[in-house]
Amino acid sequence: MSSKKKVMTPADFDKAYEQNDVQLRGVLWFVGGLSVLIVMVSVLMWVFLSQLEDYRRATKAPANPMALSEKERLPDGPRLQSAPGFGVEGPNGHVNLELTQPAAEYLELKKQWDALEKNGEKDPKTGAVIMLPIEEAKRRLLAEGLKARSDDAAKGLYDDSRRFYSESGAGRMETEIRR
Fold it and tell me: Does residue 160 lie in a domain region?
């Protein structure tokens, strides 16, 4: 009872090639459908962008509301002297120090500090004096008269202020006294 059964395999060994199950008609339908979808999406995006541009013109909004301003685009300081935006913020606004001598920043700040020391400073919002010139502050302080404490508590506070931690106290006790 031996009968030969033919085994079904995807490959036919009697032929020199494999039969292809992919049909050209299905590939052409897919390519055609994909092309139509690409054209439709492109047209819809073009319509969408033109509507957004019309809305921007109607509301007079900037072209890119998320765009950084020129000052926001600069990195935080300190910057190199030759870098764009290198400078100092002064009382009269930004002082541009691009391509100047290396000590230009210090000289500009020194000039501002000297002016503050000489003239004092007022609060721009309230107009109240927030910093006096040194000479005027000394004169006012001496005119008020200093009140110094001379009791035993003040003497003890003075002695304690002169003590400091030393190696001999192993950092646990204030053992040395400043001379």
Answer: no
Alpha helices, H only, the chain:
24-59, 70-73, 104-119, 134-144, 152-162
| Residue 78 located in a structural domain | no
Return per-residue pLDDT of the chain as tens, 179 residues: 556 666 666 667 777 777 777 788 999 999 999 999 999 999 999 999 999 889 888 888 777 778 888 778 877 767 666 667 678 888 888 888 888 888 888 999 999 999 888 888 888 888 888 888 888 888 988 898 888 778 888 888 888 888 777 666 666 666 666 66
3-class SS of residue 65 = coil
Please check whether residue 174 lies inside any domain of the structure.
Answer: no
- 130 is in which domain, residue-wise? 84-144
Whole-model pTM over 0.85: no
